[in-house]
Amino acid sequence: MSVTKQQKERDKAIRHLFDYINSSDIWGPRIEQMTDHFMRPVVEYFDEPESHVKLKLEHSPYGSMVYGYLMEMMAVTSWDAEQVTPVDEYLKQRGWREGPHGRRYLIALNESELQFLEVTAVESGRWVEVRPYGTDAQPERIVERSGSENLHIHDAIVARLVKLGKSHRFGSILPLSFQSAHHLKEGLDAVSNDLKALYEEAVAEDGHEGLVENFSDDVPEERRLRIEETGFMCFAIDALATSNSGAPQLNNTDNERIVITKTRFPILGDMETIGAILNDQDDLIDDDETRWSWLKSDGSNTVLGVYGHFMQKVPLRKSL
Question: Contact at 8 Å (CB) between 84 and 271?
């Protein structure tokens, strides 16, 4: 199977997983709770109504990053005392519908973690090299076409690394300003001392009963939570501060100003036959049984258009 078709399987599996979470009577309400939890410190920072802050962030240039981050976070989270994640449940109930590369990616996503990283080298359109922020560790190369076109040396990011075989791929990525990266690093560096102070205070009040034998056992979990929560807060504050400074000029990949248009071309014929032909095209990703995304062939995941049709005697149409 070609690399393009493997990526199509992975992209389709992610879309199906997110649709499953949003439509679930169990997971759907929980994603709202998780969103509220992550947004609370952002709302407090701006001292505005929660609905206003959420709406501005959703409609900012970074809205898709927020959505991807929170949905991936929800997908791999075990809720309260439960032992399963939405990924576990999806694979159990509907994993049969995905191709082998899609299932493999969801399993790897379930085992992934967020990291606070520094970009050390970039080859635009091909790869990014990263290492833990503020360290001299050996950089790791991530093959990432679209991300490599927007990242630069010394950028700070909170990113999910998904391990496939011997290499990693990026999941969601949140870029941080220099000030935000410094704030997050200070918070991570303070984890051990913060937990020690809390531990000593708890022992002084109630004794050792019910506490872990060594507060340092909690350090990895606290660092993980700070990367997830403080990292998101810093990113969201950066994003809203940027959006408040004025809307950016949007250009396409040819550096031409984007003009929103829609063009429809009816295609007559048997729906199943046409669908089979579209499924076989490397440049198309099947979003569902009646819709395909047309991607630019350079591997950048740039969407050139969307094909879709309705099943009730309406001809297949293409929207640009």
Answer: no
Give the range with max mean pLDDT: 43-52, 113-122, 239-248, 283-292.
113-122
Give the contacts of 176 (CB within 8 A, at least 6 positions apart): 156, 157, 158, 184, 231, 234, 235, 238
How far CA 116 is from CA of 32, 123, 131, 167, 284, in Å, comes to 25, 20, 8, 18, 33
pLDDT in tens, 127-145: 999 999 989 999 999 988 7
Nearest to 107 by CA among 166, 167, 27, 163: 163
Class of residue 47 by CB neighbours under 10 A (exposed 0-12, middle 13-18, buried 19+)? exposed
CB 253 within 8 A of CB 297: no
DSSP 175-231: EE-HHHHHHHHHHHHTHHHHHHHHHHHHHHHH-STTS-S-GGGGHHHHHHHHHHHHH
Residue 288's pLDDT band (cuts 50, 70, 90): low
CA 282/CA 4 separation, integer angstroms: 6
- Return the structure tokens found at 292: 């395909």
Residue 75: name the closest of 13, 5, 147, 159 by CA: 13
Which pLDDT tens digit goes with each residue over 153-207?
999 999 999 998 888 899 999 999 999 999 999 999 998 888 888 877 776 766 6
CB 110 within 8 A of CB 98: no
Tell me the helices (H) and strands (E) count for the chain, helix number first. Answer: 11, 9
Could you give the maximum distance between any two Cα atoms of the chain, in Å?
78
pTM of the model: 0.73
